[in-house]
Every structure is written in structure tokens, then in C-alpha cells.
Design brief:
This protein is of the alpha/beta class.
């Protein structure tokens, strides 16, 4: 048996203050609880704001649909797309357009997108979540 590795035993991640940033507290069929507000529609979530999003299917994702992220004072470096119950294929031309605009794209199911967003937010990353409800 190996001796324990020196260092802190506590692996707790930092939790952002929901009064200071938009933090995804919970999600479920047709809903999100983000900071202190419940949403029943697709949303774009950034550290500074949550706004309704007109995309209802991941295949409708485009650079234009993410225009609110491009208008931010602090640019988004990573968009986590929550596609609903499972991830879907996003075409190379859409990925290339986002990359040219300076945004990487991670495509996962909505539950995973919520968790990834929160972890990256806690790390201080310039992240946004584009969420389609389950």
C-alpha cells in the first residue's frame, strides 16, 4: 500500500456566490433554477446575466444565435451547449464560425452542461452555457 500523498485532503471546489454571478442551482424537465430565478425556456447563461434564448433545437445553433455573447464586455472563451437529453452533432461550419469568433464549443447533454458551466465558473473561466431544457 502506498503512503498518502501529501497535501490538502479537502477536494471541495469553490462555490460562487449566487448573488454575485449566475450560478445554475438545479435543472429538471422543462426548467432551470439559475441563481434565484426559475426559467421555463431555453436560456443563455453567463456569469453576469441569464437571458431567454430563441433556440429550441441544438441543430439551430449559429453564430447569430450566440450574438448576445459577442456583445459582452468580457468575451466568452467557451460555450457549453446543453442539447437536451443527449448531445447531438454540430456541423463543422458552425464550429468553425464560433472558433473564428474566439469561442470554443463543448456539446453535451443539458445536465452535463449545467455541471460543466458551474465548475468552470468556479474556476474563474470565461464560460457561457447555452441550455435547451430536458
Amino acid at each position: 500500500m502506498k503512503p498518502p500523498v501529501p497535501g490538502p485532503a479537502d477536494k471541495t471546489l469553490p462555490t460562487p456566490d449566487p448573488s454575485q454571478v449566475q450560478y445554475i442551482r438545479s435543472y429538471g424537465p422543462g426548467r432551470f433554477l439559475i441563481s434565484e430565478r426559475e426559467w421555463h425556456e431555453p436560456v443563455l447563461v453567463t456569469p453576469a446575466a441569464t437571458i431567454p434564448w430563441a433556440v429550441t433545437a441544438a441543430g439551430d445553433l449559429s453564430l447569430a444565435s450566440l450574438a448576445p455573447l459577442q456583445a459582452l464586455a468580457t468575451p466568452t472563451e467557451l460555450v457549453v451547449l446543453g442539447c437536451g437529453s443527449r448531445a447531438v452533432f454540430i456541423t463543422p461550419d458552425v464550429r468553425a464560425a464560433l472558433k473564428a469568433a474566439g469561442m470554443a464549443l463543448e456539446v453535451v447533454d443539458t445536465g452535463s452542461a449545467c455541471r460543466i458551466y458551474n465548475v468552470l465558473l468556479a474556476e474563474g473561466r470565461r464560460v457561457a452555457a447555452a441550455l435547451i431544457p430536458l
